[in-house]
Write a structure and sequence with these properties.
By secondary structure, this protein is α/β, with parallel strands linked by helices. The protein has helices at residues 52-55, 58-65, 73-80, 148-152, 171-180, 201-209, and strands at residues 2-5, 11-15, 18-22, 44-46, 68-72, 86-89, 94-96, 101-106, 123-128, 133-136, 158-162, 185-189, 214-216, 223-225. Bound molecules: nickel (II) ion (NI) and manganese (II) ion.
């Protein structure tokens, strides 16, 4: 499975011939200025919550590609009013798509859309097929609810967790989250974009090392084979 990092919390995942794009925030991100936004492929755009640093480019990319938005009901309704197709979900629900199964899970955060519209409850996604399973946490604090993921989903091959602190958990808490979700390999996100979430990369990796977990800090534009 190919995983491409587009900066902040934005990832592209190629799964069973379909392109999944998570939380597109590229054009307002000066650190991602080398990314050619109009070249990014997308069949589905998965939006964890309504904050601008997760939805900024979703409409533009969806209108170019015809991608379907997968998010909570409120966010999908908001995009629907802008002429973008979507599939609404809510916490604890799963749905089988043509690329695999998606479960929308709890996140400890908030959610309002850029124009002030209520953005429903923030969430994360567990995505799987017969071969593999991964968790995209969105913005979240460390929470005991994460322990329900290994009880209710296939074994995780990797997870994408926020580690930047201030708005989400930091690397030390995310390393505990890796234990809660029983996952060995974590890709970090939501770090270094803004001054307030700049992190010490070595200290972040050491926090995971201490718990026997691996933290990958991708470069913007980098594609990982997971
Ligand atoms: Ni947020
Ligand atoms: Mn955020």
């Amino acid at each position: 499975m190919k995983v491409t990092y587009y900066g902040h919390s934005c990832f592209g995942v190629e799964m069973n011939g379909k392109h999944l794009l998570f939380d597109p925030f590229i054009s307002p991100n000066p650190k991602a200025s080398q990314i050619k936004i109009d070249d990014i492929p997308a069949n589905y755009i998965l939006v964890s919550h309504g904050h601008a640093d997760h939805v900024a480019d979703a409409e533009r990319i969806a209108k170019r590609t015809g991608a379907t938005i997968i998010s909570n009901f409120e966010i999908v309704t908001w995009f629907g009013q802008r002429g973008v197709n979507g599939h609404g979900m809510n916490h604890g629900g799963k749905h089988r798509f043509d690329f695999g199964t998606v479960k929308y899970v709890y996140a400890t955060h908030s959610s309002v859309l850029p124009d002030g519209t209520y953005g429903g409850n923030p969430g994360g996604f567990v995505v799987w097929d017969d071969q593999s399973c991964f968790y995209f946490a969105g913005d979240t604090a460390l929470s005991f609810d994460m322990k329900t993921i290994p009880l209710t989903c296939p074994r995780l091959n990797f997870a994408i967790l926020p580690i930047g602190d201030n708005f989400t958990m930091d690397a030390a808490d995310a390393a505990i989250a890796a234990e809660f979700i029983e996952c060995e390999t974590i890709i970090g996100c939501h770090f270094d974009t803004f001054e307030v979430i700049e992190i010490d990369h070595d200290a972040a990796k050491a926090a995971f090392d201490k718990r026997g977990k691996t933290l990958i800090l991708p470069a913007i534009g980098q594609t990982l084979e997971m």
